[in-house]
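Section 5.1 Outputs to date
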Amino acid sequence: MTGKIVKTIGLGLALAAGLLLLIAAAIVLLVDPNDFRDDITEAVQAATGRELVIEGDLELSLFPWLGLSLGEARLGNAPSFVKAGGDKDFARVAKVDIRAKLLPLLQQRLVMKTVHLRGMRVNLQRAADGRNNWDDLLGAPQDDGTRAQAPRESEAPSPGPSLVLAIGGLDISDAQLVWDDRQAGQRIELKRLSLQTGPIAPGSPMDIKLDAQLTVAQPALQTPLALRGRVTAHLPAQTFRLDNLDLALELQGAALPVSPLALHLTGNMSADLASQQAQISQLQLQALGLTLDARARVQLADSQAGGNVSLASFSPRELASRLGIALPETADKNVLNQASANLVFTVSPDAIQLSDIELRVDDSQLNGVLVVEDFSRQALRFDLALDDIDADRYLPPASTIPPPEPAAATAAGVQLPLDLLRGLDIKGDLRLGKLKVAKARVTDVRLGLSARRGVVRLSPLQAKLYQGNFRGNVFLDVRGKTPKISVDEKLQSVHVGPLLQDILGKDNVSGVADISANVTAAGANPDDVIQSLNGTARFSFVDGAVKGVNLGQLIRDAYAKLKKQPAPPKAVKQTDFAELSGSVSIRNGVVHNQDLRASSPALRVAGKGKVDLPRQRIDYLLNTSIVETDQGQGGLDLSELKALTIPIKITGSFENPKLKLDLAPLLKAKAKTRLQKEKARVKSKAKQKLEKKKDEARKKLEDKLQNKLKGLFR
């Protein structure tokens, strides 16, 4: 009995299926879908307010696939958008071919063949007044202020059984997509677009292959575009993945640093719309011989992202060559041959932070943190440390450095960038372990920088150099029309000789120096700054020498000439001192000194005068005294000059100073010596005469006494 029932039911289902097939065949054979063309266009007009024009034929097919073929058709833009100056057509298609299996539909499964679209054109536009040509399709306000009405909840169709969708793929050929922004003056086109996909099923991976020609109007760029990947979309969970992304571009355009410019991007991306998060992993960008690796996590709700970026080792010189950039010649031709970078980033719509920075260039590595707190204010914060750098390697070779221009020309050509300085919002610290610049070597450098609202401070400034220390503060105020500058600096226990030897190649002054200065100035160019220079300074040197001049030798040469004696043997052009000290006051660029003191075993020197910085002139007097009379430096006895003060005048320009020995004290000393000798000679002669007379008188007396004695004994 049961078997008969089953057979009866099966026969009934077969008869029903056969009947349905007969009905479907009758529809296909007896019904012409083109008869419903007007009904379809009227329905679209009623639903969207847009004109649908079906110019090609509609075709139906039945078994084993239920198919629909659509010839050329086009969908217009909203009439209000066309009146505003927009194009007439929104989209156009030359051919659409859709096929679905009939029997699976009875099981609530939509199994489709590959959907073919040929000659599709989509034209997205924004008018000059800001409106676009798709808002009305999304229920945006119409010209009369109304919105496209969605069905009310009570009118919404009740949910039916869920439909399982399976599509064999999507094949789009000879397509074109246009974005025409007439408000911004931008136009982007994807021409000759083709898109092929693998089977499409919810939650299953789908391979995609897209090729197109991309053209951008501003800036003028064009490139072939090839995109490959695998997409997985799970609509109920709102999760999406793009794996094995492979995007290749070959950009061409006059705005590019090099054309054509090949770009190759690979990686994986995923998005979870429910949690508003996205991830990018194993992202790699290759261009110009560079390889950039990155990964990131994006918070979609508030547009925040974080991750890390690494730039593989590359040659900056080779990169510059590819870009057609001629790098300046460097003293060391081996620099800029290796660089790499790693960092962690956090970015939001108004800020970015770069942390764990590891930037290596040649033999130097920079580490630290760099933050832009506010893009609108360009508020920059940093804490950076550079381990070791020889800056001289990156400077031009000495043979290529042009001779210095006249000071006036140089001053006239340099101006402080006042607008830039007033707009700065910077606070940070830069530390350098070792620095070589201008051949000078310093260590433990620290530079603190703050700039806000037109006030710039360099504080602290500190470094260790040549067994001593440097500390300073610089203050720059550009809030007013005329910038104001103040400098407070100190050098302590610095060995000046080795410092000058490294910088100048000769140590004109040696000794251990303590120097302090506190000066102010005003002006936007060097000339104004020098003319407005005011302040004080102090200096002291111990156990040193001034090379290039030997004060003792100058005196000996002049003294030998006065005595008409042969010039003494040449001595080293150097004036040794046990201590040299003094202070200066600066008034409107003129440096005044009244208390120079220098002492050595043989000499005592006192100096006073002025140095006119704006005019670059010197007017200075050195008063030199001989305190020791041994032959010492120069090999000539100066006992006759002991305790005399001998002036030495220094005048002329910075470039050509002149030293003049004042011979008046020497002449006086010579006259005094002659007078003393004449007095001694006269005195000696008088003494000799007196002695002679005494001898004669004594002899006469003796003769008289002798004669008298002889008379007594006769």
